[in-house]
Amino acid sequence: MTSTAAVTSVRDVSKTFGARKALDGVSLEVAPGEMVALIGPSGSGKSTLLRSITGLQSIDPGKGAIDVFGLNVQKNGRLTGQARDARRRIGMIFQQFNLVGRLSLFSNVMLGALGRLPGWRGVLGLWPMEDRRRAMAALDRVGVSDYAAQRANTLSGGQQQRGAIARAIVQGAQAILADEPVASLDPVSARKVMELLVELNRRDGLGVIVTLHQVDYALRYCDRVVALKAGKVVYDGPSTELDTKTLIDIYGPEFEDAFWETKS
Ligand SMILES: Nc1ncnc2c1ncn2[C@@H]1O[C@H](COP(=O)(O)OP(=O)(O)OP(=O)(O)O)[C@@H](O)[C@H]1O
Prior knowledge:
- By secondary structure, the protein is an alpha/beta fold.
- The protein has helices at residues 46-53, 83-88, 105-110, 119-123, 129-141, 157-171, 187-204, 215-221, 244-251; strands at residues 8-17, 20-30, 35-39, 65-68, 71-75, 78-79, 90-94, 175-179, 207-211, 224-229, 232-238.
- The protein folds into 2 domains: 1-89 and 174-264, P-loop containing nucleotide triphosphate hydrolases (Rossmann fold); 101-173, no CATH class.
- Adenosine-5'-triphosphate (ATP) binds at residues 17, 20, 22, 40, 42-48.
């Protein structure tokens, strides 16, 4: 069942690496069913923010806090005991797909079910029939069921990324956090991956937060855009209102370089 709590509530979060503030007082609330693009120049803190939300990295001590579906993930610079439960509800998608290369695509997708199984069953590959069916249905849905038996590292980037989305479906994720999911793909595969994320958002009601280098993709696929610059939120609003002046504020006068295909 889809949760009614916010996908994430990020409150006054900072993250410092040495002398550099990767996040500087960031606050962000994402409601269930929203599809949000996270944009900003290289080094602006997009990945750091996603990693903090998923609890892959701790935030600075202090008053900053992060909740995911009502579970407190980070508080006073520490991951809480609820971080693992929160992470189970989130499907993570990465630029480099993060599939296990020597395993078949099917086995990779089954790994999404691991959180629900006793450890030994997963280790032995004794997947329950119901989970096997779900995995095949998920592969079919993302259009790569013909490749189920093929080793992941022999598949194209687009096929691997679709497999990663199928894994999130099998996991039963209530939200997808995708970090540059199309940065390593050709435009045709990239569009297909973005369309799948939109479908999961619209049809299944999953919250989606996706970091994108391509502003045109953010405008085309996401209703809401959040822009980071030097670790601060400099725009948070409808993609339709992201005008040239704001884009110049975010990216500088070379802002058109942030468009991948054509400026729409
Ligand atoms: N583990 C780390 N150790 C030291 N510095 C880091 C670490 N992770 C990130 N940073 C720094 O924090 C800042 C923000 O990095 P981050 O990867 O979040 O940016 P980004 O917006 O995702 O960039 P890109 O679009 O290039 O992926 C950068 O200056 C980066 O060098």
